[in-house]
Amino acid sequence: MNTDETSSGGTLIADTSGRTVNTGFGYGAEGYGDYGYSGFYEGSLTLSWSTTTDGRMQHSTPGVGQQSVFFAGLGSTVFAVDTEDGDLVWEFDRSGLLSDSSPTVHDGTVFIGSGGGTIYALDTADGSVQWTVDTDSAIVSTPTVSDGNVYVGSNDGALRSLTTDGTVQWTAHLDAPVFAQPAVDSKRVYVTTHGGDIVAIEQDGGEEIWRYSTGTQFQDSSPVVDDGVVYVAGAVIHAIDATASAREGQAVLRWQREDFGGTVNSTPLVAADRLYVGSLDSRVYALDTSEDGTLLWTHQMESAVVTDPAMYGGRLVVASLDGTVALIDVDSGLESGSTVIDASVRSSPAVYDEKICLPTEAGFVVTLTTSG
Prior knowledge:
Elements: E1 3-8, E2 11-16, E3 24-28, E4 31-35, E5 45-52, E6 63-64, E7 68-72, E8 77-82, E9 88-93, E10 104-106, E11 109-112, E12 118-123, E13 129-134, E14 144-146, E15 149-153, E16 158-163, E17 168-173, E18 183-184, E19 188-192, E20 197-202, E21 208-213, E22 224-226, E23 229-233, E24 237-241, E25 252-257, E26 269-271, E27 274-278, E28 283-288, E29 294-300, E30 310-312, E31 315-319, E32 324-329, E33 335-341, E34 350-352, E35 355-359, E36 364-370
Parallel strand pairs: 3-33
Antiparallel strand pairs: 1-2, 3-4, 5-36, 6-7, 7-8, 8-9, 10-11, 11-12, 12-13, 14-15, 15-16, 16-17, 18-19, 19-20, 20-21, 22-23, 23-24, 24-25, 26-27, 27-28, 28-29, 30-31, 31-32, 32-33, 34-35, 35-36
C-alpha cells in the first residue's frame, strides 16, 4: 500500500492513494466462490459465508436479529438467512413495486415498507405477517423503531407514527417525498425531504416544531441526531441545534462544511465527537463535531462511496461502488485491511458478531471477517 501523509494546520491529513488487494470474491456460473487469491496480511478481510438471491440489492441495509440476518432487494422478496452460515431460513413476497426500504428488526419483529405502499410487520422466526398498514404511496424509507413507536416516511411526503402493533397514531404531511430513514431522540423525530428540508416533529401528536432548508435534495442520506445536534449531509454538511423550540419555529445552525470535497449520498456515522462520511468523490471524510466541523483526515477509495460507514472493532468499514471493502483507522484515516468483491456495492454494511454483512447489486450477499 502506498500512502502519502501531509500535515495541514497541525492536523494529520491521511490520503491513501493505493492499496494491496488481499483477495477477490466473485460470482461465477457455479455460484459464489473465492477467486483470484493474492495473499493475506494481518487485518485482512476474509469470506465467512455467502448466499445468493434472485434480485439485485441497492441501498438496502441488512437487519440483524438474534439468529437471522434479514435483507431485501429491488424485487419484492424479503429474505431471512442464518447468521452463522447464510442458509435460507424463510422468504416473504411483499408484492408490489420496487422499493429500497431496509428491514428494521425489533423485539422479534421485522418492520419494512414496500413499493406497493404497505408497511409490513413480520415475525422474525418464520416470516409470518403480524400486521400490515396500507398507505396511498410507495415506501422507500426505512422504518425507525423507538420507545414502542414506528416512524416511516413515504413518497407522497407523509411521515407516519404507528405503535408496534400497527395502530396509526398520526400522519405529518411534509410537502415533499421522504425517502430517507427518520432519526429520533427522546422527544422528536427528524426527517429529511427530497425538497431539501430537515424537519423536526414532536413525537407526541406529530406537530412540526421547526424546518430548515438546506438547498440539497435528500435521497439516501438520513439525518443523525447526537447530543442535541442533528447532522445532515448532501452537497453541504450541516450541524443543526436539535433543541430549538416551537416558539422559535426555525432551526439554529451550529456549523456547516461546504469545502469538504464532494457531494454525499449516504448517511454519516457520528461517534466520539467525530463525523465520518463517504462521498461521490471517492473519499471518506472525518470531521471534528465538537466545535466547527474541522477536517481531521480523508481516505481515498477506488470509486464513489454511496454506502454508510459502520464501526467494526474500533475501525471504520466502508464499501465503494467498485466492490472495494476497506477497514480504516479512525485516528489516522489509514487503511488496515481490504478486499474486493466482484460486484457493485450500493447497500450499507451491517456488523454483528465480528462479521460484516454486505449485499451487492449482483444479488449475492457476502459476510466477511478479519484474520487479525
